[in-house]
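Can't paste images in this forum, so I'm doing it all in text. The chain is below; anyone willing to post the predicted structure tokens underneath?
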Amino acid sequence: MREIMDNPLEDETASSRLKQVGLMSVLYCMHVGNQPLTLAAITAETGLTRGGVYETIACLVKRRLLDEVEVRNTLGRGKARRFSIPETIFEQIRQFERSPRKEK
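Text version of the structure:
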């Protein structure tokens, strides 16, 4: 969340950043549930259009919070995009969880 909110991309709105934070939460839940992170699966999960999903995902890829790979689609005839959360993100989360928290 901090990576997205504290580092706006050029001409990016607060609404766009909030949408990215929300989508990352959805993608993490899909990852934990062993669901494929493809445009089709994400649109089915969120109800957003393919264009709306890809617009948000493009920002996450640009920030290196997601990796993107072209694969064959399920029918084996066309190309599809598969996304994954880089292991470095999980390492950062584990380090954050291990760090002592300051009491207020």
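The first strand starts at residue 67 and ends at 72. Residues 65 and 88 are 9 Å apart (CA to CA).
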